[in-house]
Write a structure and sequence with these properties.
- The protein folds into two domains: 44 residues; 32 residues.
- 61% of the residues lie in helices and 0% in strands.
- 0% of the residues are buried.
- The longest helix is centred in the middle third of the chain and has 26 residues.
- With 106 residues, the chain is mainly alpha-helical.
Length: 106
Amino acid sequence: MADSPSETANQMRQIIRERLAAGESPEQVRAYFVQKYGQWILLSPPKEGFNLLVWVVPFAALGAGLVLVAVVLRRWSRRPTAAPSTPVDPAMRERIRREMSGGPRP
């Protein structure tokens, strides 16, 4: 609000000046604005109750995202293992050799 050029910010700054000039403490002025506009006016809500989610959720989401990236990278980096080859019996091996060489068929 201190740097905002909006008319609303100008009005709020004027209210702050008037209340401080009337002898209210900065805490009383802050309480007035919180009562009138709610916790969002602070831009830094107290770290208690439901407002605690504002502080915890971004870090929890970041942590979950990092874990997800680590899991995905780990899966991608694993090399697939080749399936073990099944033994070919000698009769089949001979048949393949004959068919590949163009030899006689049974």
